[in-house]
């Protein structure tokens, strides 16, 4: 009998306390500023240097380019850029190594799907993924990247 009353006391206390659940699908979650979500890719900035594909620890990035059709301009033009989010660990290395900042992380994290084939994202999808792009406060960051000790 003592255990029953003790258990009901715990239940009553939990029923009257503040609720900690979220109304997630209806109200989007606010993610922290440094949250690493899905990448946004801007093909106009890409110089096809392949640094993102080389540094990727899971080899989930496929980047191909072709020579520039304009003979006056040097370099390559991007042909395809694909990411396999089935194996991507969102490590942020591809964004750190990109010299032109063609790849940036967003606060978008919703990739739920019923098929694994839908986790292969192409250049057009990544370019349209421009919601919630992470904005860095560059004025507070020195050139080396570490915060200033004041």
UniProtKB/TrEMBL annotation:
Topology within the bilayer: Peripheral membrane protein
Start and end residues of each 4Fe-4S ferredoxin-type domain: 37-66, 79-108
Residues the entry annotates as binding [4Fe-4S] cluster 2: 56, 88, 91, 94
Cofactor(s) required, per the database record: [4Fe-4S] cluster
Amino-acid positions noted as binding [4Fe-4S] cluster 1 in the UniProt annotation, renumbered to this chain: 46, 49, 52, 98
Catalysed reactions, semicolon-separated: a quinone + NADH + 5 H(+)(in) = a quinol + NAD(+) + 4 H(+)(out)
Co-factor remark: Binds 2 [4Fe-4S] clusters per subunit.
Known EC number: 7.1.1.-
Cited Pfam families: Fer4_7
A molecular function GO annotation: NADH dehydrogenase (quinone) (non-electrogenic) activity
EC primary class: translocase
Keyword terms, alphabetized: 4Fe-4S, Cell membrane, Iron, Iron-sulfur, Membrane, Metal-binding, NAD, Oxidoreductase, Quinone, Translocase, Ubiquinone
Compartments (UniProt record): Cell membrane
Gene3D superfamilies: 3.30.70.3270
Family note: Belongs to the complex I 23 kDa subunit family.
Quaternary structure (record): NDH-1 is composed of 14 different subunits. Subunits NuoA, H, J, K, L, M, N constitute the membrane sector of the complex.
Function: NDH-1 shuttles electrons from NADH, via FMN and iron-sulfur (Fe-S) centers, to quinones in the respiratory chain. The immediate electron acceptor for the enzyme in this species is believed to be ubiquinone. Couples the redox reaction to proton translocation (for every two electrons transferred, four hydrogen ions are translocated across the cytoplasmic membrane), and thus conserves the redox energy in a proton gradient.
Protein name: NADH-quinone oxidoreductase subunit I
Higher taxonomy: Bacteria, Bacillati, Bacillota, Bacilli, Bacillales
């Amino acid at each position: 009998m003592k255990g029953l009353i003790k258990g009901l006391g715990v239940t009553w206390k939990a029923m009257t306390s503040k609720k900690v659940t979220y109304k997630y699908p209806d109200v989007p979650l606010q993610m922290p500023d440094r949250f690493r979500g899905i990448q946004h890719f801007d093909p106009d900035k890409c110089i096809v240097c392949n640094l993102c594909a080389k540094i990727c620890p899971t080899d989930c990035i496929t980047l191909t380019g072709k020579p520039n059709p304009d003979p006056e301009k040097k370099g390559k033009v991007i042909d395809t850029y694909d990411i396999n989010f089935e194996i991507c660990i969102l490590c942020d290395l591809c964004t750190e190594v990109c010299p032109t900042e063609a790849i940036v992380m967003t606060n978008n994290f919703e990739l739920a799907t019923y098929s694994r084939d839908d986790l292969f994202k192409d250049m057009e999808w990544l370019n349209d993924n421009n919601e919630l792009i992470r904005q860095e406060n560059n004025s507070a960051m020195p050139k080396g990247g570490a915060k200033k000790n004041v």
